[in-house]
Amino acid sequence: MALSTDRTCELATSLGAEVHIYPDWQGFAVQRNRQLAHCTEDFIFFLDADEVISHSLQQEISDSLDLKFLIIGHTCWKEISFGKPIFSLAKRKNRSRLFPRHLLLRFDGVVHEAAIVSDQNIKRKIFTSPLLHYSRENIHDSLRKLTQYTMLGAAKRAKEGRKGGVIRGLASAFVTFSRLYIFRASFASGGPGFLYAFFIALESF
Question: pTM score, two decimals?
Fold first, then answer.
């Protein structure tokens, strides 16, 4: 855990959770690798602070652990932003979250971390029940996340020797907003759908 300023650690400890604190933030992949070092069970499910496992997804995960063969489990997000579900964005992109511990080597990546496993041929299962993703609660939270992701993205591009620029940024933001708001119909969710597409576009500038 890092950068937590509320009572999360206190409450988690009181409920029997094992809490480890790393205040020196070095990126999402580093943070997950630190968590990985403390895991001792046969399977690991990575859950971010803004995500909630629904009862139906919980049952799917539990059933998958009873299979006679190992799998990597993938979840799909159901976006909930500014207090409203963004319906058109549900179940569009899956992310690997459930892993056999002995096969998960590490995570790589500054912004969107990727899991590195020792067996690339392992079976993969996409759970049908979505993982609830409360990505943006309000404007203030969105601006904070915007600052974080743009800085990480810029650092990643600089490390790779890639240059930015106003034209590239405008083009990237326009394409991102059009894809989310028009082609993936976040406009159907009203104001929250517009704000969601707008802030994602700003992050890609």
Answer: 0.83
